[in-house]
Amino acid sequence: MTNVHDGExxxxxxxxxxxxxxxxxxxVVLSDPAGAQPLAAALADGxxxxxxxxFRTAAAADAIAAMARHPQMLVGAGTVLTVEQVDRAVQAGAxxxxxxxxxxxxxxxxxxxxxxxxxxxxxxxEIQMALDAGLDTVKFFPAEQLGGIGMVAALAAPFRSxxxxxxxxxxxxxxxxxxxxxxxxxxxxxxxxxxTLLDAGDWAEVTRLTAAAVAAARGERVISG
Length: 225
Hints:
The structure is a single chain. By secondary structure, the chain is of the alpha/beta class. It is built from eleven helices and eight strands. It has a four-stranded parallel sheet, with helices on both faces. It has a four-stranded parallel sheet with strand order 4-5-6-7. Helix 3 crosses helix 4 (60-68), helix 3 (36-46) packs parallel to helix 11 (203-217) and helix 4 (60-68) runs parallel beside helix 5 (83-92). The chain is globular, with a radius of gyration of 16 Å. The N and C termini lie far apart (46 Å).
């Protein structure tokens, strides 16, 4: 099994710090693992060092393994619903786990393996469950549908120690607003890794959109064309 601590020396910090430094976490749905290595290179060329590969396709574990071999990429597993998927993800080289909701069994297994886990939350009750489990960083999902940055701010007020990774409906138009809130560690996004781009192997466009996303996250003006 992969040593989950090896990457801390490789990236010069813990997983949460690396994700926080990048501010954007691409959420990848890859149907063909052959695209994993060029995708990792395209993201790195655009200025991002992290990616979440979702278990929405049969290619997930192979894609994680391939992307994790890139020297500049810290790769995690997303849409993790079961303990079995946790084990497969970690064996493939995932350095962190993300789930769409709070699953006690998934959280416990990640903690047994000493792998950071960011469960999805949509309410104060679920945030309290995460705190009770010893977690202080959560995925807020689906962010825009639940009220966007206004809801994040409302939840952050009583839960002052919690950091959020809003995901769902985040794009270049609203990313800066999310990241301006001090409780937001990073945002999850799909626009720079849209399935149509990945299926077409348009790595140049992935790099262009990634660079634009990084600029937007920094509050820089993005000039198209």
